Amino acid sequence: MSDRLSVFKTYKLYVGGKFPRSESGRVYEVTDSKGNWLANAPRSSRKDARDAVVAARKAFGGWSGATAYNRGQVLYRVAEMLEGRREQFTREVAEAEGLSKSKAAAVVDATVDRWVWYAGWTDKIAQVTGGANPVAGPFFNLSSPEPTGVVAVLAPRESSFLGLVSVLAPVIATGNTAVVVASERAPLPALSLGEVLATSDVPGGVVNVLSGGTAELAAPLAAHQDVNAIDLAGADEALAKELEISAADNLKRVLRPGPVDWAATPGTERLTAFLETKTVWHPTGSLGASGSSY
Amino acid sequence: MASAFEYAPAPESRSVVDIAPSYGLFIDGEFTDAADGKVFKTVSPSTEEVLSEVAQAGEADVDRAVRAARKAFEKWSALPGSERAKYLFRIARIIQERSRELAVLETLDNGKPIKETRDADLPLVAAHFFYYAGWADKLDHAGFGRRTTNGPSGANPAPLGVAGQIIPWNFPLLMLAWKIAPALATGNTVVLKPAETTPLSALFFADICRQAGLPRGVVNILPGYGDAGAALVAHPDVNKVAFTGSTAVGKEIARTVAGTNKKLTLELGGKGANIVFDDAPIDQAVEGIVTGIFFNQGQVCCAGSRLLVQESIHDELLDSLKRRLSTLRLGDPLDKNTDIGAINSAEQLARITALTEQGEAEGAERWSPACELPGSGYWFAPTLFTNVTQAHTIARDEIFGPVLSVLTFRTPDEAVAKANNTQYGLSAGIWTEKGSRILAVAGKLRAGVIWSNTFNKFDPTSPFGGYKESGFGREGGRHGLEAYLDV
After folding, report:
1. Start and end of every Aldehyde dehydrogenase domain (chain A) (predicted)?
2. What is the reported pLDDT for B146?
3. pLDDT at site A290
4. pTM of the model
5. A114-127 residues labelled b (16+ CB within 10 A) or e (exposed)
6. B273 phi and psi, to 5 degrees?
7. Which residues contact residue B189 at a Cβ distance below 8 angstroms, ignoring those fewer than 6 apart?
8. B14-268+469-482, what's its fold?
9. What mean pLDDT do residues B81-108 have?
10. What is the spatial distance between Cα B343 and Cα B110, in angstroms, rounded to a whole number?
11. What span, in angstroms and rounded, lies between the C-alpha atoms of A108 and A142?
12. Distance (Å) of CA A135 to CA A105, A132, A144, B57, B429
């Protein structure tokens, strides 16, 4: 081994497809599970949160309007890019969560596979949750799911990578755009994920990643009038209640926190939590009314 | 302007319904007084005649009803689905048998025309119970349980427990059906609070539960005011809250259940856009506009209360619309020829009056057909406003009355932008002969129910509910089961 001095990475936010520092200029020390310094992560401000919402809103039309097939391809591309960075994420997850190298590698593998799982859902969820309704009258009647809009996601506190992807991927798979607040204690895998997304054909603004104080960032997101939903996975009980009250102001869809085994294959509940159902009616007319049976 | 033909009165007989001078709360299978002995009067909005005196539930009664429902839950949820189904089929059939009586009762207590209660409300009520009856033993097929190739995994669809349900006064029995049918089919038990101005049909429903032999405590009915509703929402032993009503109350409920495990569905206000393109068949569109805003005196959360008309046909469409409005018959709701009945309450009439006065004050142009209003009761003539801008209060706030705001647009993009420019997202209408335009516009509208070349159609198989501040969750169809299952 050479004595070469390594090059540190400045970890930055991922907002609107760019990598800004916090507008506040603040950073905080991120340490590994033993307390050793790892990096200075941006401590995002309320303004950063609002900027991220603007970026997510701007991206919503294009992303929700993309074909489900296209979204599936883009999500699969994320998995491809991750696959090539497995070593980097294994190191980051090992440091963040205090895991052995082999255990961290298993977590990263599961995370890549989770992206693949959700990539396959993009063009199937509409068939599972929507469909024709046999109304008692001469009408064509069809229910289809549509994305709710801009979703604020509080990533799980402990599972810094598998948990993060498990809450983020279902949000964007269905066409929502996301503002993600990374685990406060272990934000580095999330910030690195931004670098992967930026090189994976995910349009800028579809996913925005903030690091910093969860409570400090979650409060303005839960109260934001242009945020349509919030996933409280990373909030403790007291914070979750406070945020849910605040979210009622514009009737955000709220996914409450609960115990989740991130390693288990998920159900569809994180997909359906941020879907609306649109039902369209149209008269069918009455061909054959004269008695013809074709 | 054409006027209505002269018709001889054709009143439906009210002898088909026997309203008792007083009613109690329905708790644990029995009618009972309120703990504090409070009562309130329910009046006929078309005459202000007192119909009956009804026990008024308070916090102690809510607690008693929730305990009855909790006690009943154990056996009810353990019944085979096929047995629960048969109870619901019984209820559906008894509603059909008693539909004329219930239609007259509803018209008396609510003020809406008998034509509507007879031909819309009651058939839909029975259909709703019939539809959900069939689900009770098929929940494993509803797609909520998880099955993998390795065998069963994850939880089977299970009921939540006690459902606290609060319904509005605009479709009293139909909203009861939307709430109770899916709740019982999925194995929950129910405490339901009807609106204070329309308690009677829910109390008659209690009698139907008795006739059907429904086990005691499975359905509890608590007539009362907002304080009883608030107590029900806040009760710690309620597992599910379902509310239909105003957006303001819906937000308050969402705050109340924050931090609990209570599952919540809200069906709230709307400001539906009814979009008419220049190639629409005008006569059909006019009928759709009338249905959209004057059905049930416009006291409909999904009413098409904003007419968006393409500029090039504005004058032609308005002429036809005004001509049509001049033929609407306003008067005795029990008369079979009546199109427009009474406003449900003095309070609602005052709200409609205030908002329309504000519309005038803000500069919109008001028009109503020549229309004689009865001397007693609560009445409001069909009204439309032209020269309305998006900033006007009457284009933004839900009026919940027979008042239509007319706006114009030039391009489909402008129509969509204006239609979506609202805090609400419940319904919308599209009128055009061009299929691709219907699908393109329907795809862009942020609303839960889109009626194209029709309006205000409802069916138990068709999910209903809103986007944005019109609430969340769906009622009706397979989707409607989710609100009552632990999935």
Report:
1. 23-254
2. 58
3. 61
4. 0.96
5. bbbbbbebbbebbe
6. -95, 130
7. B69, B70, B72, B73, B76, B77, B161, B162, B163, B183, B217, B218, B219, B220
8. Aldehyde Dehydrogenase; Chain A, domain 1 (3.40.605)
9. 98
10. 8
11. 40
12. 52, 9, 16, 37, 18
**Taking the domain A39-283, which CATH number applies?**
3.40.605.10
3-state secondary structure of B67: helix
The yes-or-no answer on residue B302 being catalytic is no
- Which residues of chain B does A131 touch, with a Cβ-Cβ cutoff of 8 Å? 478
CATH class of B273-460: alpha beta
Cβ–Cβ below 8 Å for A278 and B449: yes
pLDDT at B375 exceeding the cut of 70 = yes
CA distances for B403 relative to B333, B340, B351, B468, B474, angstroms:
19, 12, 12, 23, 27
A261 in reach of chain B (CB within 8 A): no
Domain B273-460 in the same topology as domain B14-268+469-482: no
Instruction: Give A17-20's long-range contacts (Cβ < 8 A, gap of 24+).
Output: A17/A55, A17/A198, A17/A203, A17/A204, A17/A205, A18/A204, A19/A194, A19/A195, A19/A198, A20/A48
Domain spans of chain A, in order of start: 39-283
Spatial contact of B349 and B380, defined as CB atoms under 8 Å apart: yes
Q: What are phi and psi of B431, to 5 degrees?
A: -120, 110
| Residues composing chain A | 294
Q: What is the pLDDT of residue B144?
A: 83
CA B484 centroid distance within chain = 19
Mean of pLDDT values over B21-31: 98
Strands (E), B142-188: 147-148, 151-152, 162-166
Spans of all domains in chain B = 14-268+469-482, 273-460
Q: What is the pLDDT of residues B455-487, one digit of tens each?
A: 999 999 999 999 999 999 999 999 999 999 998
Residues of A in contact with B464 (CB under 8 A): 279
Sign of CA dihedral A110, A113, A119, A124: negative
Pairing of strands B25-27, B30-32: antiparallel
Q: How far is CA B68 from CA A212, B61, B159, B161, B238, in A?
A: 49, 10, 17, 12, 12
pLDDT at B2: 47
> Using CB atoms and an 8 Å cut-off, which of residues 425-484 of chain B contact chain A?
438, 442, 447-454, 457, 459, 461-465, 467-469, 471-472, 474, 477-479
Between CA A64 and CA A60 the distance in angstroms is 6
Residues of B in contact with A265 (CB under 8 A): 148
Mean of the per-residue pLDDT values of chain A: 96
Cα distances from B14 to residues A207, B96, B415, in angstroms, run: 62, 18, 46
Predicted pLDDT at B3: 56
Phi, psi at residue A122, to the nearest 5°?
-55, -40
The two structure tokens encoding residue A268: 């569809």
From the list B213, B191, B189, B202, the residue with the least C-alpha distance to B86 is B213
Q: Which of B301, B302, B469, B475 is catalytic?
A: B301
Q: What is the pLDDT of residues B228-273, one digit of tens each?
A: 999 999 999 999 999 999 999 999 999 999 999 999 999 999 999 9
Q: List the beta bridge partners of residue A39.
A: A30
